[in-house]
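Lab notebook page, bench 4
Experiment: in silico fold of construct C2
Operator: M.H.
Input chain length: 260 residues
Purpose: comparison with the prior construct
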Amino acid sequence: MSAGLSVSALALAGMLVLALCTWLIATYKANVGLVDIFWSWFFVVGTLVYAGTATALTLRGEIVIGLVAIWALRLSGYLAHRNWNAPEDHRYRAIRARNEPGFVWKSLYLVFGLQAVLAWVVSAPVGAAIQADDAGLGLLDVLGIVVVVFGIVFQTIADAQLARFKRDPANTKRVLDTGLWRYTRHPNYFAEFCIWWGFYLLALGAGAWWTMFAPLLMTVLLLRVSGVALLEKDIGERRPGYRDYVKSTNAFFPGPRKNT
């Protein structure tokens, strides 16, 4: 096995160990939705493996490590504050219902193991950028940094606006359509899209063009699998005003409101 594959396998092993620990916590709490809190930590584990096994950390590698840490700590902290003592999210309740009996054991691979593997695949540009020997920063690196920082800031603002909206009991059945949510129905997902394409630009700057599969996978997940498509599957039933919101507001990429 080549050195690159050995490091990648070690990163996967670390993420699977974290998945097992997360499963134990979620099983104790009877809430598999807690995996969302630990999602970004899979990338922290991978980043630590890639950094610890690098021949020598370059400036690009140090920047990538810092950006992953900022993104992961901010996101996991926000989700922990919101979800730690909350009931299990309806999406995970639906998965639980479809896989009973024995969901406790099935969730180990259906939820936790799967997310670890997905994070491992998506983290490929991060690993490539950290492990690269090329120490020079170019235009692609600068552009990648700008895109990642933009995504983190955009996501932070969107999450803060949503948290403030949810704190008001009067908004229980209402739809947030102000701030960034006026221009896209999913500013947090759009921000995640920017973050991972930004990391790909940093990997591209290091010559790892082949890691394009990672942001492409993340894009598919955000748009077609666990992001927009899944969240909007039944939200119109829970929030009646969402149908009008769909007619007037872009689903993903920000843009001006539509006339309805």
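Observations: The chain has one domain: 3-248. Residues 42 and 174 are 34 Å apart (CA to CA).
Next step: discuss at group meeting.
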